[in-house]
């Protein structure tokens, strides 16, 4: 496998052939643009509509922010790292030289040999920012699943307040920082000597192979297996709750075995979305973790390691980052009410105009009560399906949940 020398960048050599480089560049560019545009839309729509500042949308807002960090701190640096190999003025046949290199540690550095053009400080900052953003995105996805589980499966259970949701988000970032701290600690610029030539590279330099393997296994469990199991269980319970429903009109003493009734289009959308969320999370992150496990535990030959770093890793990273592109589509743009708010926000340029609420349906629990003029009687939680009509006459559907806590009324609009 010949490494190409760029004519426009003298001495700068590439890891792949030009068609492969073009394909990776286009793929990473599309994912970058889609991630930035999609998540910026989510941030703007939620940020400019105060009645959307509920618990669920707070988590979605944080997810969009973490995905934006992935776009700016992960995607460009990863693309550069996967394409450029060395700053050298001689032709390099990587296959021949890898086979001639007998030192395993040098093999690994040679295979990932990429000239660091950003400096040691950016090398350290990049590692921390990448770990934080990826961890925050994964753990926020889990938090959203837990919140949806409580709302749908246990609608009468007390929900988180907005302040409590902010504390959960704070915990998400702290947990991400703690898990990613070892990776950031060993990431720095280092000078590598190979065949009487020195190369400044940015990478992870672990004290031993065992420590690297231990961290890889821990990262796989904490950031993939555990979140995937949690998300799968929570969304499976949500899907079961939506799919199976007590027979309408059944008396308390009669048969109330959950049976599938005529599933409405709305319920089917919820089921499809839950399945989509689990499948997207599992499939987008799986290739990257499998690649990492293969590198650290697979006992690969030098040629296999070269193929892994030059073709498998760039593809696996691209698929993983596509998760940040898909998230706003699943959580926001594919939701009817979000699309309505998107149109309203960007059509008027402002969401501060007066709105009127037209109650279309009132759902109560076992107790009966009224919500009127800011007062409530004996009902701990009341949900109202409403139509929100803005100053332009646009009708936007939503649900206003009123919860009475310590004689105080807490309201949240969910789309």
TrEMBL record:
Regions crossing the membrane = 20-47, 59-85, 127-146, 166-186, 215-235, 270-291, 311-334
Q: Where is the signal peptide?
A: none
GO molecular function terms attached to this record: G protein-coupled receptor activity
Enumerate the SUPFAM superfamilies for this protein: Family A G protein-coupled receptor-like
Location of this chain's protein in the cell: Cell membrane
Q: Which UniProt keywords apply?
A: Cell membrane, G-protein coupled receptor, Membrane, Receptor, Transducer, Transmembrane, Transmembrane helix
Q: Which GO terms describe its cellular component?
A: plasma membrane
UniProt membrane topology term: Multi-pass membrane protein
Q: Where is the G-protein coupled receptors family 1 profile domain?
A: 38-331
Family (UniProt)? Belongs to the G-protein coupled receptor 1 family.
UniProt-recorded name of the protein: G-protein coupled receptors family 1 profile domain-containing protein
